[in-house]
Amino acid sequence: MLKKLLAPGKKEKAVIEDLTRHIKLLYSGLDAFERAFRDKDRDLMASIIDLEREADVIRRDVISNIYEGAFLPYLRPRLCRFAEVIDCVFDLLEDAAYQYLDLVIDASIQNYCTQIAALNERMCEMLLLSFETLMGGGDLRDKALAIRVYEKKVDDIKLDLVRDLRNVEVKTFWDGKALSDFVSSLTSVSDIIEDASDYLQVINVSMR
Amino acid sequence: MATLLPLIGCVFIAFVVGSNDTSNAFGICIGCDILKFKKALCLFGPVVLLGAVLQGQKVMKTVGSDLLEVNLSILGVSLIVSALLIAFSNWKKLPLSTHQVIVGSFTGAGMASGIPVSMTFVVKIVLSWIVSPLGALFSAVLIYKLMEKTLSRFSVFRIETILKNLLILCAIVIAYTTGANELATVLGGAVHAGLFSTTAASCGGALFVFLGALFLSPRVIETVGKGITTLDPYSGFAAQFGAATSVFIFTCLGMPVSTTFCIIGGIVGVGALKGMETVRFDLMRKMMVSWVAAPLLSFCICFIATKGLMFFPKGFFWV
Questions:
Q1: CA–CA distance from A124 to each of A38, A77, A146, B10, B245 (Å)?
Q2: Which of B23, B24, B128, B214 is the most buried (most CB within 10 A)?
Q3: CB contacts < 8 A (A, B)
Q4: Is A208 helix (H, G, I), strand (E, B) or coil?
Q5: pLDDT tens, A111-139?
Q6: CA-to-CA distance for A80 and A87, rounded, in angstroms?
Q7: Closest CA relative to residue A195, chosen from A88, A119, A91
Q8: Contact state of A204 with B152 under an 8 Å Cβ cutoff
Q9: Is B155 within 8 Å of A74 when comparing Cβ atoms?
């Protein structure tokens, strides 16, 4: 009886499950991106676009469940915002995947991009761990710190990447823009994952 | 005429209690979508009746017998004046406590007609009006501190679920005290003047409280419920539960106290805990003015009205 009283309601359960699925899907997307980029697998890269569509459906479910009354009003905007931030990462990943399909990546920046893609994937893994810790009631600080450290690494690599990017010869303005957009999308993923991690921290402390 | 006027007064005030006090009890739960309005109403009606039947007698006795021996004439004047004042305050959107208006009216009408009014009980009631919001304030602070120490250990989603259940529990306690205290204050005079039996008064009163809640409360709930939920859940719950505890204790002591004033006391308590700058002193001042003016105004109007009616030949209105 007490267990039933303390268990989350149907809508709340659905939101929690959807959010977990949302982060797991992002992790799969980032993993697929990293493998596709490393192995130059264009089909795998194209599959990320389908994952983004699936993630959109999950975000809509999360928001509609919250709109229908899941959770106390105090938590609702924070959880909606968290789902939107995750979706934002997906949008960046999709943009990067689209741009990759139209590009030939210069060998001089290949290694940097692979490193960043791998770090993005690890950051998302840590975000998933953070969310699971949030559900279990543990301390998120060490996970948040790890995410910040990874983000710093991405920033450092980005500096070198941008420096070397200037030496890459581009034939047309549009080729250059596509390459610049690709790098920008890829390197922004870590910033948004860091924002998502900060949101989890806010959610965690907001009810205490 | 002598029985019709008090009856109209009782019905009207019970109706107003239903329309206004449902928001005290279930405003937050409905505002937060924890309960739908229909479900809340189905809970509110029976719990109010339960409160009136199980614990209403003590407050009824204080208002209708201990304060003064109410008769039908005093009852008629007091309840009609109270009903008019409450209607006026609702129309002008002024905060007015039903308890204070009724007690002030009874005292005014009683003194004007020469019926002995127990000053001991006047002092006791006024003291309870001062102590009950303070009690709510301290209870709210205590509950807030206790929750910080205990609930914070759980995960955020577990805390949320626990708070939801506690808010429902709190709403039920306030609905219970609405019956045992608020409704009992309205009916106390009528029961002790011999107009109804306690059971009949409780059932009839609860029915009109229910009807008031059904027809008029949704708009009040929308205003109060959605407004209050901007408080963080800990503060909202602590303020409400602090008020519920205070009103319940005073109900057990048989003292008519206002749930609204107690909730305000609770909100001030948790607000002060987070820093005095969060407390809106302009609003507090307005409430204080109403707190002093309501019983004095009802006392004076009833005193003058009773003196005026006593000029008519005995039997015409005055029993």
A1: 18, 22, 11, 65, 47
A2: B24
A3: 62
A4: coil
A5: 999 999 999 999 999 999 999 999 888 88
A6: 11
A7: A88
A8: no
A9: no
Which residue has tokens 């409704």? B183
Residues on chain B touching A8 (C-beta within 8 angstroms): 157-158, 160-161
Q: What is the pLDDT of residue A178?
A: 92
Residue A204 and residue B154: Cβ atoms within 8 Å?
no
Residue in B156, B162, B165 closest to A203 by CB:
B156
Q: Would you say A70 and A11 are in contact if contact means Cβ atoms under 8 Å apart?
A: yes
3-state secondary structure B34-60: CCCHHHHHHHHHHHHHHHHHHHHHHHH
Are the Cβ atoms of A207 and B165 closer than 8 angstroms? Answer: no
Asked whether the beta carbons of B302 and B276 are under 8 A apart, the reply is no
CB A204 within 8 A of CB A140: yes
Question: Which two tokens mark A110?
Answer: 């290949």
Residues of chain B with pLDDT under 70: 1-2, 220, 222-231, 276-280, 313-319
Q: What is the distance between the alpha carbons of residues A6 and B53, in angstroms, rounded to a whole number?
A: 32
Q: Which two tokens stand for residue B217?
A: 């409360």
Average pLDDT over residues A162-174: 91
Angle at B279 between CA B277 and CA B283, to 5 degrees: 130
How many other C-beta atoms lie within 10 A of the C-beta of residue A196?
Answer: 25
Give chain A's length.
208
How far apart, in Å, are the Cα atoms of A149 and each of A133, A163, A190, B25? 19, 22, 11, 49
For this complex, say whether ipTM is above 0.90.
Answer: no
Cα-flanking dihedrals φ and ψ of residue B293, to 5°? -70, -40
Residue B36 Cα, gap to closest chain A Cα (Å):
10
Dihedral sign for Cα atoms in the order A18, A23, A25, A26: positive
- The pair of structure tokens assigned to B134 is 């303070």
Provide the chain A residues 39-68 that lie in CB contact (below 8 A) with chain B. Answer: none
Residue B233 sits at the chain A interface (C-beta within 8 Å): yes
In angstroms, what separates the C-alpha of A10 from chain B's closest C-alpha?
A: 12
Count of H-run helices and E-run strands, chain A: 7, 0
Nearest to B133 by CA among B253, B245, B17, B285: B245
Name the residue among B32, B154, B234 with its Cβ closest to that of A137: B154
Of A15, A61, A57, the C-alpha closest to A203 is A15
SS (H, E, C) A22-74: HHHHHHHHHHHHHHHHHHCCHHHHHHHHHHHHHHHHHHHHHHHHHHCCCCCCC
Query: Could A73 and B32 be called an inter-chain contact, meaning their C-beta atoms sit closer than 8 Å?
Result: yes
CA geometry: angle at B232 spanning B230 and B234, to 5°?
145
Looking up tokens 């990293």 gives: A34
In chain A, the residue whose alpha carbon lies closest to the alpha carbon of B157 is A135
Question: Is B156 within 8 Å of A206 when comparing Cβ atoms?
Answer: yes
